[in-house]
Amino acid sequence: VVFVVGLFMVSSIIRGQAVISELLQNGQGYSGSQWETSMTIASLQSLPSGPLYSNRPGAIYLLADRHSYTIPYFIPGRDDEYHDELEDMKNKMQHEGALLILFEEDRHPPESLRMEELTRHLVLSAEYSDGAIYAFPTGD
Predict the structure, then answer these.
(1) In this structure, are residues 43 and 126 in contact, taking their beta carbons and an 8 Å threshold?
(2) Phi, then psi, of 122 in degrees rounded to 5
């Protein structure tokens, strides 16, 4: 029993050191290395000071020191609310110059993030490996 407990303790210590080493090297959450090198975050510095909408408003606030609204997410049974929020977002984009900042969370966005509806009638202003910026088309 003592041998098994000792083996378990040594194994736990080794795994714990590996996790700590990984966190110290790459960070966790918004302090992670992928956020430090984010071209999408870096590009926010040169954008006008208008309203922003994003699927990662926390990242924008913490890393770019800018406020952003959360994008509309579809919740079954609340279709009317979703469409109202989507219309509000597009109105702000059209009349106030708001921008839509979408970070690539993974290759298959959740069903609640309806990319086709979010980006319909918008133009892709900039695209980076970690995200994209959309704007309402101007009447030029």
Answers:
(1) yes
(2) -105, 160
Contact criterion met (CB below 8 Å) for 39 and 63? no
Average pLDDT score over residue span 53-81 = 90
Residue 135, number of CB atoms within 10 A of its CB = 18
Q: Which of 17, 36, 39 is nearest to 28 (CA)?
A: 36
Q: How far is Cα 109 from Cα 76, in angstroms, rounded to an integer?
A: 16
The residue among 28, 31, 37, 27 whose CA lies nearest residue 129 is 37
Q: Are strands 69-70 and 123-128 parallel, antiparallel or unpaired?
A: unpaired
pTM: 0.74
- Tell me if 52 sits within 8 A of 101, measured CB to CB: yes
The pLDDT confidence band at residue 53, using thresholds 50, 70 and 90, is: very high
Looking at the DSSP assignment, which residues form a beta bridge with residue 102? 132
Task: Tell me the CA end-to-end span of the chain in Å, nearest whole number.
Answer: 78
Amino acid letter, 131? G
Pairing of strands 69-70, 99-103: unpaired
